[in-house]
Amino acid sequence: MYRLIFLFLSAAALAQPPKMELNPNGFDAIDVSIPATPNEKLIEITKAWATKANQREKGADVTDVTANSLTVSAYKRDAFFYRDRGETHSHRIRYSMKITFYENRYTVAFTVNDIYMDGDKLVTYKLPDYFTSEGKLKEGYTDLEQSLERTVNDLVTSHYNFIINFR
After folding, report:
1. What is the pLDDT of residue 7?
2. Which of 6-20, 133-147, 152-166 has the lowest mean pLDDT?
3. Please, is 12 exposed, middle or buried when counting C-beta atoms within 10 Å of its C-beta (0-12, 13-18, 19+)?
């Protein structure tokens, strides 16, 4: 019995999408394997996911819909934070996910378009501004990378789980 549970949990853990990692230019696109599903169905499911996943925010826009791709744009409150001199700064983002479907996989390109401070004030900083020319996070931005990666991977995993459960 325990072996069966362990096997199930191991298979579920392996079936997750690859982790997106923050770099000075944002996030590199990833490939996600899924069971073969018609593109029309995947686009329909993704539109439903966008609506459901962003109902607490100001909704989501689905644009650039083609026979095998679409772009989901939305806001995410508390998307990342950093600590500087003992003070925590939390930020909201406007993001887009370009999703392209293939026979038994899809690619996700995640872009942080805008960053907002508390009170929804647009910040002039873009993601590359938080990094040094050597590609390291600038001093004073402790936890930014970890918190933003967690948010992005939660969104990507949420989309994946929605597809797997509602195909």
Report:
1. 42
2. 6-20
3. exposed
Q: How far apart are CA 135 and CA 101, in angstroms?
A: 31
DSSP 19-57: PP-EETTEE--EEEE-----HHHHHHHHHHHHHHHTTTT
Per-residue pLDDT at 8 = 44
| Distance (Å, whole) CA 115 – CA 166 | 32
Q: Alpha-carbon distance 66 to 85, whole Å?
A: 47
The rounded distance, in Å, linking the Cα atoms of 78 and 148 is: 9
The residues pairing with 106 across neighbouring beta strands, listed in sequence order, are 32, 101
List the structure tokens of 34: 């899924």
Structure tokens at 67: 């026979």
pLDDT score at 4: 44
Nearest to 153 by CA among 8, 22, 15, 6: 22
